[in-house]
Amino acid sequence: MTLLVTALVTGLGLGAMYGLIALGFQITYSVCSRVNFAQGSIVMLGAVLGYVLTQRAGLPVIVAYPLALAGCALMGMLVELLLVRPFANRGSEAWLMATVAGGILLDNAVLFTFGNEPRSLPSPLVGQTWQILGTGVYPQQLLIPVVAVGLAVALHVLFRKTRQGRALLAVVQNPEAARLMGINTTAMISGSFALSAVLAGVAGLLIAPLFSVHSDMGTLFGIKAFAVAILGGMTSASGVMLAGFIYGLVEALVTTYLGSSYTYIAVFALLIVVLAAKPNGLFGRAALRKV
Amino acid sequence: MPRRLPLTRRTLLAGATALGLATAFPATAQDGPIKIGLVAALSGQSAKSGEAITRGITLAMDKINAEGGVMGRQLELVSRDDESNPGKGLVAARELVQREGVAALIGGLDTPVSLAIVPFANEAKVPFMGPWAAGTPITMNGAEENYVFRVSAVDEIVDEAITEYLVSKYGAKKPGMILINNPWGESNEKGLMKALEKRGMEHAGIEKFENNDVDVVPQLTRLKENGADGLFLVANVAPSAQVVKSLDKMGWDVPVASHWGPAGGRFTELAGDSGEKVHFIQTFLFDSAEHPLYMKLTEKFPEVESLADVTPATGIGNAYDATLLLAAAIEAAGSTEGPAIREAMYTITGVEGVIKTYDTPFTPENHDALGPNDYIMSQFVKGEIIPIAD
Amino acid sequence: MRLTEARLLDLTIILVAAVALAALGLLNGYMQFVFGLVAVWTILCTGLNVYYGLTGLVSLGQVGFFAAGAYAHAILIQSGVSFWLALPAGAVVAALIGCVLAIPAVRMGGPFLAMVTIAFAFIIEHLAIEWRTLTGGQNGLFGFTQPRLLGHGFTEPNLVSLSIILAAAGLLAYRRLAVSGWGIAMAALRDQEISAGSLGYDPIRTKLAAFAIAAGAAGLAGGLFAQLMQFIAPSNFVLSQSILFLFAVILGGAGTVLGPLVGAAVAVMLPEFLSGLAEYRLLFFGALLVAVLLIAPRGIVGTVAAVLPRRAGDVTPADPADVMAFITPAERQTLTVTDLGITFGGVRAVNGATFEARPGDVTAVIGPNGAGKTTLLNMVSGFYRPGAGRIETAGRDIAGWSMHATARIGIARTYQATRLFGALTAEENVIAGFPRGTFGGIFTALGTPERRSMARGLLALVGYRGEPGARASDLPHVDRRLIEIARALAMRPGVLLLDEPAAGLMQGDKRALADLLRRLADTGIAVVLVEHDMELVMGISDRILALDAGEPIAFDTPAVIRSDARVIAAYLGEGTLSVPGRTLAHEPGAIDRLVTRNLCAGYGAADVLQSVSLNVRQGEMVALLGANGAGKSTFLRTVAGLMAPTSGQIVMDNADIHGLPPYQIVDRGLVLVPEGRQVFPELTVAQNIELGAYRRRTRPDPAELEALLTRFPRLRDRLHHPAGLLSGGEQQMMAVARGLMSQPRLLLLDEPSLGLAPAMIEELYAILAELRDDGITILLVDQMASLALAASDRGYILEQGRIVAEGSAAALLADDALISAYLGGGESRAEAAQ
């Protein structure tokens, strides 16, 4: 029983974080059919900036975290400007490799500036534990799903209620008509990369206190989140969040009951099987082909 | 500059620059410096430990060179990064031996990397000195002519020591193991089982976890439910910290005896205050800021400002002594040929190191310079590693 | 013997290998080892080049196959199997795993495929870690017995030599594969998956072959790697290694023969030069990769090759008589379509289409835009699976067959937007058609001298006068159309489907095309033609099927069709529809709202608009009319900023607006309500309408919305429904309302009546008349020509990108130029106007 509760808590927390990062993949993919493969590195950037601004510059969290997220947003826009747009403009698929390289560059740039030692980002929500059904839980673990689902819902609402949000949806649903409405699609694409990076940054800030802050902390999160985005089908935000929870829970249950040795094998084999059965992901749909 | 190249090779490799080609030929200088190769993790998560080893070797070489070198020749360090990757380590070792022409290798932070290099070192007949990796089979590799020596802890002996510590100090009867899922963990699983069997004790379970596991509660819960009254911990600093955090979460206060993983970084920062409860093994510590080697360190490396900046001191001490022993053997052999150095290793004695004075540290049966008496149980206090008073 | 490009490549490979082998003896052990690594990488990258460079698939999991080969080899060696058996066995094991992985993967593309390969690499890596009894776990396996050959020990230098020889063999094999039927099929799949299918190439088998070859090469490389390293562990096979492999291929030049060699050499040797800067290595790699992608996307070899002259051997085009004999079908094929239908999301795109295309006949399919003509071709050619009906030819019902299956039974087709294989030459495009999807030998060049000669003959036949060796993607639109016809003919089809072959062709070319189509039909091919140029259709067709809104309305001879009232109504609009005229005589304002001068624009090399000059005055409603393909939509899109004009001037309210991005043009008050409504389907009607005001500085107040709803009462009940659920008419109302929301100074309407029921059209036009009477300036494009003119003050008639007539609406309505512009016969006027 305790084991099951532990697995569920861990799975929901991590799943929510994967979902949050995956949401970033989904947003840019919806807007321009491209993703930022450096997303995992931006998770790391969020955590590193959060650490540097609070622990080294001594800023209060309320100032430091928004600044860290702004840094992530800027990085997202830079990635789009330098590593995606030049290739998109010439109809090349090389943005894929370019953003992968961007991630390598970012990881190493941080390694040489931030240092090679894992550091710890303190949080008031780590230290005291809450007892839930016989298992101890850091409040931070519960904060992740709350923030992730909250953000997903908030985005859903913002997209529908605000002028720019609707403009973004318009670009997703019909890019050409959006241009005819006078929407600057270039700026919207740039914005979607910024937003996607902010989500990654939030994930980084949330997970850091439970983990440690170092230059290669994001790579694996990025890959898992990409798997989640694919599993969710890349078309709907709710599908991607749901896929995040499914992935997190499967991962935690496999770890708990089979041992962590089998986690990757089982989870990724399952992913291939699911995609074999549903090539557009669990909740995705195929577009109508035209000639 | 080495001699000019035949034209054929230039056409052969249009993309190659002259620099790369120039190094394609063995350096054969007889009176230049004696090169010593270092293969260690200089980047990534273990870089801190790699840096400690580099510092130890550098200090020892400075001392030797200042005193006139070895056989009248200066020592020179050639470093290669193995990225904690055995394949990369093996290629780097080959390159150091076959291209740089080093007289001996020092290296291997990680047991897998060392294990990958061992067969090559024995075959190439190049002495391979280990200042860190503790895997038992590194030195006990079964080779007829064993070129691998070590100035460091040995898993089997460490396991014996930490078992003794849990039993005698905490009266543990049924300890559990929480081990990192890699060859180092595997090696200690064997060592710990041996130590427990020797005492006729049972264990509460063997649990493995991964380097990047955020949460180890499931594994620890299983140990707790099996009635563990003490824990053996084997993992590097960051994953060790994840274990402590998970213990905290569970509110489980249990004595933890650890291999030296926590010494590899800012353990208490990562693990929180509970990190101080973890007791771990060390071979060398700076007992105060007046330690002569520490003084030299601050002189040579201005970035060192406090004792907290030189963790893990073990790496520095081991590497320092290893270099001195290696130099002594080369001097004794009067040659940079591998077989001669190996033979000389068994003859050196009275070498004054920073850990101890080595009298006949190596014999054909024992290639480990440090034994159980050289281990110190320690813990973190306010970010510094402090020996535990008995 | 001439030194062709192929022979030159072969010689280069052999020479490089020979020099490398000779040099081995001069090198120290480590450099020999490095040479071995370069050879191993070359083998793997050559395989990856088949997969990525040739077939265009992305694999981030190649290291998985590398690992599988290495472990299979190592385990076999350690269980006593001879090296000479273990090495190929490793390759076979990897290739088999590749085939298994291909089963789910061939159906995927883009990021989904990338993810599957990543997942696969992770699984292999972790299996290697966990399956300790077999793989040695994290510690890996080491010590692989030295192989023996003819009683001699096979030393490390021997092994390196073997690797170099195998790498050279791999490169030579790639060179041959790339020009074989398989290679052409792979390149075809990469450039144009759809038309690869319509040439008869089975995409699944092609991809499967690419997977197997890439995996097998990686497996072979893995075996050599294990033997060379004498040690393998899971850490040799991490995901980042896959990225380096792909990097090597891109750096060297994806799709070039020597690219993998150069890429492998750089990727392996570079760290050697940088060994002193060990920790900065990855930083350097990342930067180099980005730089290469940005500056030299074709890679080192591709960039160098681009400046070298091509050395394809010359062949003489086949004799025209031989060409005609070649394309004459051995067996005549009739295409009989009965009650064919298909629905998309509840909309009947085609319903009950029935016709027969006889061999020797030109059978045309006509109809207004959106009538379902291309959809009909798509069903016949197997691109869409029909929902109902039969398609019979050569004694089989082929309804629902895949594209490559219909191609193999003798149905060839061309596309509205040409779908040539961009990276192949004109000649190679045609050659790709010859085998009708039969791959042939894996190393047998498809382009035999006979075929090349016939390909040139076919190109000459269709009237292509350009360079046969030019890359298809560099050619102008017209040439691409011709090559596509030649490619279809290379298949020796019994049935030839042509989708708007005349679009964009000049008058003289059109006559040549008409002549060609007639001659093709005369050989006994059943030619099926979808075409808007009525002059052409009426001139050469034996029978014509007229479609309207997916329904067949007539199937008869040109003479009958031309005078069929329903056909004329479908094209010009129902004569019974009425629109309120102006109640007061209108005196247009003195100011020109929009002026275009000598405006030219188009897609690719050919201009669709050829020097269009017109003006719209303030408060005026102007109709721009013309047949499909005349350039009306192109004109509106260019004015709205969606397309950049190639030359000429667009002036709005005395300011140049050409070249501005659309959002700045919207700021100036010019709004286009696009063809096909283009709603935001998942936003509500209210949200759609509000987006119309996106660029306005002030928020629209409720009264404004209220006023719009009064104008479009149908929208009131639907205000909070998703726009996608509205009927076509409601969507059109909404699109106009959305356009009005920006308070436009000039409203452009593109085909507002398209696909609407007559009652709805009348309602819509009543509203447009109201807008006109309220003083809004409107430029209207509609194929309901008489209706549009009835509503407008003035009109222009556009034909083939030129304005051929202009005048008051009343005058144009009375002019027979209108009917001839739509149903043919206006050519004399066009030429007179020049």
UniProtKB/TrEMBL annotation, chain A:
Assigned keywords, A-Z: Amino-acid transport, Cell membrane, Membrane, Transmembrane, Transmembrane helix, Transport
UniProt signal peptide: none
Alphabetical list of InterPro entries matching this protein: ABC_transp_permease, BCAA_transport_permease
Domain of life: Bacteria
Cellular compartments per GO CC: plasma membrane
Subcellular localization, as worded in the UniProt entry: Cell membrane
One of the Pfam families matching this protein, by short name: BPD_transp_2
Gene Ontology molecular function: transmembrane transporter activity
Spans through the membrane: 6-25, 37-53, 59-83, 142-159, 189-211, 223-250, 257-277
GO aspect biological process, one term: amino acid transport
Membrane topology: Multi-pass membrane protein
Family affiliation: Belongs to the binding-protein-dependent transport system permease family. LivHM subfamily.
Name of the molecule in the record: Branched-chain amino acid ABC transporter permease
Automatic annotation (TrEMBL), chain B:
SUPFAM superfamilies, sorted: Periplasmic binding protein-like I
Signal found in the keyword field: yes
Pfam families noted in UniProt: Peripla_BP_6 (PF13458)
Residues of the Leucine-binding protein domain: 33-367
Keyword Signal appears in the UniProt entry: yes
GO biological process: amino acid transport
Signal peptide positions (record): 1-29
PROSITE patterns: TAT
Similarity annotation: Belongs to the leucine-binding protein family.
Keywords: Amino-acid transport, Signal, Transport
Name used for this protein in its record: ABC transporter substrate-binding protein
InterPro entries recorded: BCAA_transport (IPR051010), Leu-bd (IPR028081), Leu_Ile_Val-bd (IPR000709), Peripla_BP_I (IPR028082), TAT_signal (IPR006311)
From TrEMBL, chain C:
Superkingdom assignment: Bacteria
PROSITE patterns, A to Z: ABC_TRANSPORTER_1, ABC_TRANSPORTER_2
Protein name (Swiss-Prot/TrEMBL): ABC transporter ATP-binding protein
ABC transporter domain mapped to chain residues: 335-574, 594-825
Entries under InterPro entries matching the protein: AAA+_ATPase, ABC_transp_permease, ABC_transporter-like_ATP-bd, ABC_transporter-like_CS, BCA_ABC_TP_C, BCAA_Transport_ATP-bd_LivF, LivM-like, P-loop_NTPase
Transmembrane segments: 7-27, 57-77, 83-103, 110-129, 208-232, 244-270, 282-308
Keywords: Amino-acid transport, ATP-binding, Cell membrane, Membrane, Nucleotide-binding, Transmembrane, Transmembrane helix, Transport
Localisation: Cell membrane
GO molecular-function term, one example from the UniProt record: ATP binding
GO cellular component, one term: plasma membrane
Entry membrane topology: Multi-pass membrane protein
Protein family per UniProt: Belongs to the ABC transporter superfamily.
Gene3D superfamilies named in the record: P-loop containing nucleotide triphosphate hydrolases (3.40.50.300)
GO biological process entries: L-amino acid transport
Entries under Pfam families matching the protein: ABC_tran (PF00005), BCA_ABC_TP_C (PF12399), BPD_transp_2 (PF02653)
